[in-house]
Amino acid sequence: MEATPGTSKASAGITLLSPSPPKKRKELSLGQLSLREKQAILNILLYLLGVAKSTVYRIIKEYKSTKTISTSKQCGGRPGMITLFDEATKNSIRRFLLFKRNSHFGQNIK
Asked: Where is the composition biased (Polar residues) (predicted)?
């Protein structure tokens, strides 16, 4: 028996088919799920992502309308208390706290 490199399958009687086109992904229809199942999925997402429920609903609403999800550019929230004061006030508060920490103010000394 003689081994011949380069023997193709076509010469052995097997015909090769062209590759099939990639299959489209089917969209997940949440309409088939019960309300209890939808809430369970939502709670899992909330736990895994660590975001608020309103954020998840906003993302779902955006996806339904545009079929894409974009990154959020919202930087909201309440400003920190420290931003309310100017530098002179911040320095006076720091000096007062440093004084309280270094002094025996409020301790009973015998």
From this structure: 1-10
Q: How far apart are CA 36 and CA 31, in angstroms?
A: 12
d(CA 52, CA 37): 19
Question: What's the pTM?
Answer: 0.35
pLDDT (average), residues 72-78: 71
Q: How far apart are CA 78 and CA 88, in angstroms?
A: 23
List, in order, residues 6 or more apart from 42 with CB less than 8 Å away: 53, 56
d(CA 88, CA 84): 12
